[in-house]
Amino acid sequence: MNPKPKLRSPLDRARQVILFEVGGLILITPPFAWASGVPAGDSIGLLALIALIAALWNAAYTTSFDWLEGRWSGRTADQRTTPWRVIHAAGFEAGLLLISLPIVMAWTSMSWLDALAADAALAVAYVAYAYVFNLGYDRVFPIASQC
After folding, report:
1. Per-residue b/e over 110-146, b at no fewer than 16 CB within 10 Å?
2. Are 137 and 16 in contact (CB under 8 A)?
3. What is the pLDDT of residues 113-142, one digit of tens each?
4. Looking at residues 7-34, what average pLDDT do you find?
5. How confident is the model at residue 57, as a pLDDT?
6. Neighbours of 89 (CB within 10 A)
7. How far are the Cα atoms of 16, 70, 143 from residue 8, in angstroms, in the given order?
8. Quick one: pLDDT at residue 11?
9. If DSSP codes are grouped into helix, strand and coil, which group holds residue 7?
């Protein structure tokens, strides 16, 4: 185990989270509004709130995941293997699903099952987006260049 893995700086982590959330809102709000039948204005408000929650969750989850993975594997997050990228993205979305389901239900007045389906669809979309975004981010902003 590596006792002190290199992590992204707080400024770099903030940039990563902001770019991720803004990109997600731009890409995912229109199809969510169309598929759910929730008006576009309500959809952007709901997804913006979830994005804010996700940003906080992302900072905590990803920093913890990077630290644990770094201790276990000795590599930095930008060197993450494909299986670990999938685990990272799926774990993030599973945690966010647990946090956001009650919010989706309250905001949209959807039944529990409809809200679960809508939230699960969002999670699937964001898992794919998270994988692609983080792979690209790690290539454009490698950790070694920050040290």
Report:
1. beeeebeebbeebbebbbebbbebbeebbeeeebeee
2. yes
3. 999 999 888 888 888 898 899 999 999 999
4. 90
5. 92
6. 21
7. 10, 12, 6
8. 93
9. coil
Helix axes 112-140, 82-108, angle to 10 degrees: 140
Of 15, 10, 6, 19, give the one whose Cα is nearest residue 133.
19
Task: Give pTM, 2 decimals.
Answer: 0.71
**Backbone torsion region of residue 37, taken as left when φ is above 0, otherwise alpha when ψ lies between -120 and 50, otherwise beta:** left
Q: Which two tokens stand for residue 42?
A: 């309500």
Contact 32, 45 (CB under 8 A): no
Environment class of residue 38 by beta-carbon count within 10 Å: exposed (0-12), middle (13-18) or buried (19+)? buried
Distance CA 61, CA 83 (A): 17
Name the nearest CA neighbour of 84 among 120, 134, 129, 124.
134
Q: What are the structural domain ranges in the chain? A: 27-146
Token pair of 87 as six digits: 């685990």
| d(C-alpha 54, C-alpha 60), whole Å | 10
Residues 6+ apart with CB under 8 A from 82: none
| Cα separation, 144 vs 12, whole angstroms | 12
